[in-house]
Amino acid sequence: MPADPALAGIGDEAATALTAQIAAVERLGFSGIELRSVDGRPLGDLDDAHFTAVRRAVRDAGLAVPCLASRLGNWARPITAPLQEELRELDVLAERAHALGARYLRIMSYPNDGLPEPEWRERVLNRIARLAERAARHDVVLAHENCSGWAGADPERMLLLTEAAPGLRLLFDTGNGIAHGYESLDVLRAILPHVDHVHVKDAVADAAGTTYVAPGDGQARVGECLRLLLEHGYGGTFSLEPHVAALPHEGVTAEESTSDGAAAEPFVRAGRRLQQLLRELAPQSRDPLAYR
């Protein structure tokens, strides 16, 4: 197993304001923060002055930024969305990734918009290949998440994406299978050599829908996923995205889902559970606090 896998958290899962995002990550002792939206705005939409302040705050906190969670190909961007807008966001985020020291940009693979499946497939493969080529010119790496889009739930399609788009890597989310109706551990086994970044969440599903819970407390077999990754030499970051307060795909912020003014508390509790899971996976001979 890697000696000390890095831990990060997606900041807006804890709070809207960047200062509160950083504070929550620091409370957990995590070494990194993954950025998606800051002060209520997607990172790619910030003006230059606002972004400069973000970069300074993250630097002053001494936090690494392993990945930027982009909107490219996500649930709000069907395959018929204008390509130029996607290219513009990629260009902006690639520049900001360099400024922050981030290597990866998270993407998804475009929901359909009424197209026949063969046309949807062809458009997705072509578009992501083009995006990956442009990312390579910027010296950043696109990481496709097992979430929304053509390849979101199918490991064979994920592998087809990596073939069609040289340089593309995969981002594995431990909990997405519960909401999207597949067994996450089976997907991980199929794509394991291509996984460069990991999001950690957990959930339970019943007739009423999906409820997100702390890592290890749900049905996603998070501990088994983490063990498999570590046993196969995964050396990337485990980035906490618990959805226990913020639900970005539903437009719900951490503050809106909590009423006591302690918006970051569910995020911090989820982070503690992740740390506990990793301690349990650590070899007995190691310091039990090694996975911090």
Describe this structure in words.
The protein has 292 residues and is of the alpha/beta class. The protein has a single domain, classed as Alpha-Beta Barrel (TIM Barrel), CATH 3.20.20.150. The chain contains ten helices and twelve strands. The strands form three sheets. Strands 2-1-12-9-8-7-6-5 form an eight-stranded parallel beta sheet. Helix 7 (184-191) packs parallel to helix 8 (222-231). The longest helix is centred in the middle third of the chain and has 22 residues, at 117-138. The radius of gyration is 18 Å and the shape is globular. It starts with 5 loop residues before the first strand and ends in an 11-residue tail after the last helix. The model is unreliable at 284-292 (pLDDT under 50).
Looking across the biggest beta sheet, what order are the strands in?
Answer: 2-1-12-9-8-7-6-5
Unreliably modeled segments: 284-292
**CATH topology value:** TIM Barrel
Give the name of the CATH superfamily.
Answer: Divalent-metal-dependent TIM barrel enzymes
Sheet-strand content, in percent, reads 15-25%
Largest sheet: 8 strands, parallel
Mean pLDDT: 92
Please state the structural category. Answer: alpha/beta
Helix content: 40-55%
Number of DSSP E strands: 12
Determine the N-to-C terminus distance. Answer: 15 Å
